[in-house]
Amino acid sequence: MNPIKKILDLLEHDFSDSGKFAKLAPLFDATRTFFFLPSPQSRIMPFIRDHLDLKRYMSIVILSLMPVLFFGIFNTGYQSGLARGETLAFWPAFLSGAWVVLPIIIVSYAVGLFWEILFAAIRRHPISEGFLVTGLLFPLTLPPTIPLWQVAMGISFGVVIGKEIFGGTGRNILNPALTARAFIFFSYPVTMSGNVWVAGADAVDGITGATALAVNADGGGSLTATLADQGFTLPHLFFGLIPGSIGETSALCCLIGAAILMITRIGNYRIILGGIAGLLITALLFYFLPGTRGTWADAGPLFHLCAGGFLFGISFMATDPVSAPGTNPGRWIFGFLIGFLTVILRVANPAFAEGVMLAILFMNVFAPLLDHLVMKHRISKRIPNV
Hints:
Strand order of the largest sheet: 1-2
Number of domains: 2
Mean pLDDT: 83
Number of helices: 15
Helix content: 55-70%
Shape: globular
Radius of gyration: 23 Å
Largest sheet: 2 strands, antiparallel
């Protein structure tokens, strides 16, 4: 018998309802589930089997985040090298980036897991695997030199205020990772401003430089030419070798993750495609408006699509099944309006460079209304009983 399983079987009685460690049963159950069990076993009939449970669901989401995570680690080290006047090869850049990024992820998981265990012990319910995704999503939305204590503050707010006060996983109306980022953004704006920190040699010191969305052309010149002069050409924005938050820079890696989610049907394709359509159409309309030269209204649809964190947000955060609509028409509208609002916020308020965070949170609030309107419309089309 597996020695770990033997130990857990011997300890199971102590963590049962009548055991001396009953209050820590959620932690024991989470540990056992991590090693062996995909879900609680049915001990009496009927025995129901399903190929997809919450653990497998979250595992696929984490798998889809791996391209973004690995590239983010590499790009953090690469940008750090450029800041020191060096051009690092892949492995030195990756190891340098890991030295910066991994502590952020570890703090996010450690502090968030503390709150998960605390609330699970108080409410006597299992620890949800949903935190495995939240604990990784949140660090990927942050600049690489954010202080670790701010990471702890942000994930605490996201877990406690964004999820647990509503009842835990499955009952939250806002995406917890985005709620955590919004808290950091408005509480510590210098850390999360459009001038994103590039990690320096010791991962504490750093330099600042404008991100692509913070660039505007002086004197009404061409925005795309100004972006190119500062190194933000469309290929750079697409592949991601630019300064920015850890997980947002590479549009290619975000699209790979989105493809994994859509192929496995973990992320609803209607939200992703609807969001991309909303952004492209709105950006195209602004592009043809007169008097917009030199601003992000003049950027064009592809620059809007690849710059900033839109593809990251629409792929991994807008598709959260809890805070998104449950009806298919509602999902199309939900995604389209996220893309629409992202461009509106970028163009109408240059002081707020990135709009996707508020666009998703705003539509999270209206997701139940969208479902209500869709169901009301469907009911109105039914043939009345005579």
